[in-house]
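Quick bug: Cytochrome P450 output formatted oddly.
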Amino acid sequence: MTTTHQGDNQQDLADEKHLAERLSHFDLFSWEDQRVKWELFDYARGRCPVAHTDGNGGFYIVSRYEDVRRVMEDWETFSSTESPLVPTGVPSLCPIDDDPPIQSAARQLLNPLFSRKALAPYEEAMHQTAEDLIDAFVDRGSAEILNEYAGPYVGRMLTKVIFNDLTDEELNAAQELALAVAEGATPELFGQLFVMCTEYLERAKKRGITGDGVLARLVGGRFGDRPITQEEQVGCLGILVLGGLDTTRAAIGNIAYRLTQHPGLEDRLRNPAWVRRDMDEFLRLDSPVAAMARVATRDVELNGVLIRKGERVQVRFDSANRDTAKFRDADQLVFDEARSGHAAFGMGVHRCVGSNMARMQIEIAFEELLKRVKNVRLAPAADIKWVPGQSNALHTVDIEFDRVG
Ligand code: HEM
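Here's what came back:
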């Protein structure tokens, strides 16, 4: 017995050493780190909740729910400027790369445009877009959810809402580019997206902007007592596309995957109550935005670790959302209790501006899908891989199903 315990202890120590070592080099883009990520963050939360990694240029990884909250709520100490997790190669994106007061001025302008009420006029188009996409694969009895459904659906609707006063031709071009960005977010595509936003702004200004959409508010609006600069206008358009695309697409793919893993879930989602009752639990478990970054504006202690002015922190929403100090059975979907306070849409001043839109898109995507298909299952050749990076997103979700009726 004693020998076994000693052996177990030694194995535990070796495992811990291995995890500590791996955490100290954690690299967002490593497939190997991605594979063991939940084990790593579980270890981090237990043993070194603010761990330093030399990966991706050096970060303190903040893994516990309460620490994540503290960082997100203290924007004066943990700034969003000069802190991108992944360099985009494009100029600053307003409001995500700004702090108050510019960030709050931008939010004042954007929030009303993404309220449930403001989005209601797009609801019918969302249903129609989803239906059209399903038409294209329903007879086949199979689909790859991310690229045949979620990507084009989210891309089409997002561009329609953001660029709502464009001509059909311009909108088509924007949608094609959005789809390309959703399929592979390379620096080249980011660059093209910014060129596109700049050109659209220019053309829209020349033509005269009508209505009360995003463009109208950006061009006619003010941040406090000054006009909004061209760079801020372009950054704002760009982050709305980037912020809304991969995230909602990933969320739809993740939920579809969970449906294939738990047969009872499909019926749960046929009940419209799932939207208020269960959607957040899916978002908590597979937080589509895995992490964001902040930079310390002064020397600060976080959970016993001194972070010096200018050092960056990687705030892990996904790890916070699996913190058992906050959520019981955090690695499982738990529907039998009211869970609240997940971090999937962020916290504090930068909390997602598009959360209403995301929820609406997810709701309609599954309402339309489950009207037409049943017994959703993974295709035998499905290759389920979580892609490393800033998102919790699957590479592909190949499903098979039976037709309803
Ligand atoms: C399931 C889908 C989505 C998830 C999980 C998500 C998640 C997040 C998170 C975690 C943040 C906080 C970033 C930070 O603190 O640095 C954020 C901010 C943001 N999101 Fe979303 N988002 C989603 C959908 C959308 C959509 C549809 C849009 C566009 C309409 C959008 C636009 C933005 C913008 C512009 C910000 C920056 C807000 C600010 O800096 O004040 N997001 N989102």
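Actually, after a second look the formatting is fine. Residues 83 and 294 are 5 Å apart (CA to CA). Closing.
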